[in-house]
Amino acid sequence: MSEDISSIIATAEDHMQKAIGFLETELTKIRAGKANPQMLDGIVVDYYGSPMPISQVANISVMDARTLSIQPWEKNMLQPIERSIIAANIGINPQNDGNLIRLFLPPLTEERRKELVKRCQGEGEQSKVAVRNIRRDAIEHIKRLQKNGLSEDAAKDAEKDVQDVTDRYISLVEKHLTSKEKEIMSV
After folding, report:
1. CATH number for position 11
2. Which one is predicted more confidently, 49 or 107?
3. Are 106 and 90 in contact (CB under 8 A)?
4. Of 64, 104, 116, 138, whose CB count within 10 A is highest?
5. Following DSSP, what letter does each residue of 150-166 receive, concatenated?
6. Residue 124: its pLDDT value, please?
7. What is the rounded distance in angstroms from the CA atom of residue 105 to the CA atom of residue 166?
8. What is the pLDDT of residues 105-160, one digit of tens each?
């Protein structure tokens, strides 16, 4: 029975780690005033009828702290890339010069910074909910084991272990949010 409990806890911890990884990915997409090629992750371009990530049809580079350049591998991809960026509504207007697309990141206003912090907190809240759902599933699994003969003390200890893992991952979410908020609010 103890290997079942350790398996449940390990599985829950693995799922919680994936939730943290997803949060980290989402937070990198939220710009903090600095140009970052990862801001364009998730934007897809229609490449001869099939959707492709921008990074697979063009070279994305950072020109300076506030400018990204997108150099398509084929010139006829300039227009579809430009349309995809506009459609993604990331708050940046692409500048097409016929050879490459430049994205100039405007300086963040105080109001925009607060909006971004709220968006970060929303992502953090989604991660916390995911972690709590994983905890709930693990505890339900432990209760099923208890009905099948696991002692009450062992079940309580396992639930406490699951709660400890949950608390650790919730505090990790908070740490990520605090550092991202500090990054956004610094001028």
Report:
1. 1.10.132.20
2. 49
3. no
4. 138
5. --HHHHHHHHHHHHHHH
6. 92
7. 38
8. 877 788 888 888 898 999 999 999 999 999 999 999 999 988 888 888 888 999 99
Non-local CB neighbours of 44 within 8 Å, separated by 6+ positions: 51, 52, 53, 54, 84
Q: Three-class SS string for 1-53?
A: CHHHHHHHHHHHHHHHHHHHHHHHHHHHHCCCCCCCHHHHCCCEEEECCEEEE
Residue 69 belongs to domain spanning: 37-104
Helix (H, G, I), strand (E, B) or coil at 109: coil
- CA 5 vs. chain centroid, Å, equals 30
Residue 43 vs residues 3, 57, 84, 98, 172: alpha-carbon distances, Å: 43, 11, 7, 21, 28
- Asked if the model's pLDDT at residue 90 lies above 70, the reply is yes
Among residues 137, 138, 128, the alpha carbon closest in space to that of 9 is found at 138
What CATH number does the domain containing 69 carry?
Answer: 3.30.1360.40
Structure token pair of residue 33: 């005033």
For the segment 46-72, the average pLDDT, to the nearest whole number, is 88
Six-digit token string for 77:
């991809």
